[in-house]
Amino acid sequence: MPLRLPDKLPAIDILKHENIFVMDESRAHTQMIRPLKIVILNLMPLKVTTETDLIRLLSNTPLQIEINFMKLHSHTPKNTPIEHMKMFYKDFSVLSEQKWDGMIVTGAPIEQMAFEDVEYWQEITGIFDWARTHVTSTLYICWAAQAALYHFYQVPKHPLEKKRFGIFPQTPLDPLLPIFRGFDDVFMMPHSRHTEVWRSDIDKVDALRVIAEGPESGVSMVMAREGREFFITGHLEYAPDTLDKEYKRDAGKRDDVELPKNYYRDNDPAKGPLVTWRSHANLLFNNWINYYVYQETPYNINEIK
């Protein structure tokens, strides 16, 4: 089944060229199906890029999914046209009146700031609290994962000596968990961050469970509330060229920028990236939708609690 997306969303044309079946709202209304309702709080600067990355992965399921985009009232994006935000995004105050089968909260380029210094900290923690009673399962990605771990469980973040940048191997610690159905013994995950959470801090919290980690990248996935919350410190949703664009952007501004590890063919930017994470990215999002959203959410969405 296809994804139901807002009419004229830029991602629709991009994904159709990739032979991904998407359906705009006008056509979807002709089908008598109860779609899964997913809301995405997109905090990344390049909204269209992140929209496309997530929609691409959410399309890998036989279920019909309706996607909605949430924006913050207390923050105005600087890198996305205001017309795009007005057309495709709704304030939390509007979307909070509904219940949702699933929610995704993205990362944000503010990880070196103290959480309380973030201009929208009060609003976003209110959204985190709301999600616990209005969403069946929530994926928190990168900065959002650190922020939610701090807000709910007082897990601090710690600065890294240098940016963790590249593609790093991860090991599932409980391969029988449904989120890892079909995974190999080791899988690769993109990372791009200046801070980290420590296993020693997480292990002090009985409600938290580290479910994947890597020898160099550290904790990569944490689960809570039997899968109603997942905290992912990396970026499995990244497109093949995302780290390449980030590297070239920063290399043009500073002379201390290192190559992303385990990313370029023969470690040579001229040869382009070697994609090693795409299949597991599709598996993870498909497993999340199937086992933690579809099989857990009530048919009457208003019964979520």
TrEMBL record:
Matches recorded under Gene3D superfamilies: 3.40.50.880
Keyword Transferase: yes
Main location (coarse class): cytoplasm
Site (Important for acyl-CoA specificity): 111
Gene Ontology CC: cytoplasm
UniProt keyword annotation of Cytoplasm present: yes
InterPro entries the record matches: Class_I_gatase-like, HST_MetA, MetA_family
Subcellular location: Cytoplasm
Site, Important for substrate specificity: residue positions: 192
Pathway: Amino-acid biosynthesis; L-methionine biosynthesis via de novo pathway; O-acetyl-L-homoserine from L-homoserine: step 1/1
Reactions catalysed according to its record: L-homoserine + acetyl-CoA = O-acetyl-L-homoserine + CoA
Keywords linked to the UniProt accession: Acyltransferase, Amino-acid biosynthesis, Cytoplasm, Methionine biosynthesis, Transferase
An annotated Gene Ontology molecular function: homoserine O-succinyltransferase activity
Pfam families: HTS
Enzyme class of the recorded protein, top EC level: transferase
Residue numbers binding substrate: 163, 192, 249
Record family assignment: Belongs to the MetA family.
Function description: Transfers an acetyl group from acetyl-CoA to L-homoserine, forming acetyl-L-homoserine.
Protein name: Homoserine O-acetyltransferase
